[in-house]
Design brief:
Blueprint (H helix, E strand, L loop, with lengths): L1 H28 L5 E5 L4 E3 L5 E3 L7 E7 L7 H14 L6 E7 L7 H11 L6 E4 L3 H12 L3 E3 L7 E3 L2 E5 L4 E4 L11 E2 L3 H15 L2
Pfam family, one: SCO1-SenC
Family: Belongs to the SCO1/2 family.
Protein name: SCO family protein
Length: 209
């Protein structure tokens, strides 16, 4: 009788351990291996249609953020072109979105941004071109996302900025992959094709979470 009880006790322990293990595995693998950097900053700006857009409009969506300006003579056209690749890749997915924030709001009014978006061929309903207060946008770029942007009279166009794209998941967390040394890349190269290929792959992963 004692032997039977012992078997029952062992079976119960194995069952509990099995349930715990399955639960632990589910917790470990319900998210992929992309690194969570931190929460994306809140924002409230005006889009190309004169509508107020906030980070809440992107809740439950995976989205990409870039900082640019419409009259940029250097890297912006390439960044916008690469964002078009993302639009084409995820055109039918309403759980995906894009945010293009001007760093020259004095000139990039909603009307200017609307014309710019039309010339680019923007069709995705969740791709917003945003404008607002200059200081607010500079703080959002440099302190919120930690993506450099600023005025520089000595460069073409009067502004200089990073060509990086930020990737944000459905929970509003900035996410990224690791490099070959196991270090988080933080942001994606928005200028070269390998960076665009990488962010496409990782958007697909985040959409499945």
């Amino acid at each position: 009788m004692k032997k039977k009880t012992s078997y029952i006790g062992i079976s119960f322990i194995v069952l509990i351990f099995g349930i715990w293990t399955v639960k632990e595995l589910k917790e470990r693998f319900k998210k992929n291996d992309l690194v969570e950097i931190g929460s994306a900053p809140r924002f409230e700006l005006t889009n190309q249609n004169g509508k107020k857009i906030t980070n809440k409009d992107y809740e439950g969506k995976v989205y990409v953020v870039e900082f640019f300006f419409a009259s940029c003579p250097s890297i912006c056209p390439k960044m916008n072109k690469n964002m078009l690749q993302l639009q084409d890749a995820f055109y039918g997915d309403l759980d995906f979105g894009m945010v293009s924030i001007t760093i020259d709001p004095e000139n990039d009014t909603s009307a200017v941004l609307k014309e710019h978006a039309q010339k680019l061929g923007v069709k995705h309903p969740n791709w917003n071109f945003l404008t607002g207060d200059y200081t607010y946008i500079m703080n959002l770029a440099n302190k919120g996302f930690n993506i450099f942007a600023g005025k520089n009279k000595n460069v073409a166009g009067g502004f200089e900025h990073s060509g990086l794209f930020a990737l944000v998941d459905k929970e509003g967390k900035i996410r990224c992959r690791k490099d070959s040394f196991g270090n988080p890349i933080l942001y994606y190269d928005g200028l070269e094709q390998p960076g665009i290929n990488a962010i496409k792959e990782d958007i697909t992963l985040l959409l499945k979470e």
